[in-house]
Amino acid sequence: MPDSTYDTYDRLISLLDSSSIDYRLIDHEPEGSTEAVCALRGHPAAEAAKCIVLRVKVDRRTTRHVLAVVPGDRRVDLDAVRTLFAARYVGFSDAETAERLARAVPGTVLPFSFDPDLELLADPDVVAQPKLYFNAARLDRSLLISGADYERLAKPRIERVAGPAEV
């Protein structure tokens, strides 16, 4: 999947450049774990966007895919997502589906959706961040933008979907 990963990276940079968003690229050692990459970038995990692809079974025939974005020191509250979609089941998507819809490998998933079959859902604490860090569809490069610029550009559905901070 390397080719599509770079396509996703290029698409992100083009989107940022054409939108006149202030951003900063940060090169670092290849890393996909939220905690480890936050240490490499030198910021608290609360300032990171953790991106998880979920499978939401609304009923027996209807499955939706949701990209949930929560602060890096939190977990996705699956019960909150289930309630939000009035779903029978919510769980983590399998790796193949997640890669196909996110157009990125695990650890590099952007807090943006470039696929109409992947709904974007962000916790309000993500868009409230003055500084928001995330891997830029690559394990060796991250991006820094403001939460407000992220919200303006990505246009996520804003809902409380983050659980309590991890200890």
Short description:
The protein is α+β, with helices and mostly antiparallel strands and 167 residues long.
Descriptive labels:
3-stranded antiparallel β-sheet; 5-stranded mixed β-sheet; alpha+beta; 167 residues
Q: In words, what does this structure look like?
A:
Strand 7 and strand 8 (141-145) form a beta hairpin. The protein has helices at 2-18, 34-41, 78-84, 95-102, 124-127, 147-154, and strands at residues 24-27, 49-57, 63-71, 74-76, 89-92, 118-122, 132-138, 141-145, 157-158, 162-165. The model has no long low-confidence stretch (mean pLDDT 93). The chain is built from 6 helices and 10 strands. 31% of the residues lie in helices and 31% in strands. The termini are far apart. It is globular and about 45 Å long. The chain is α+β, with helices and mostly antiparallel strands. The strands form 3 sheets. Strands 5-2-3-6-9 form a 5-stranded mixed sheet. A 3-stranded antiparallel sheet has the order 1-8-7.
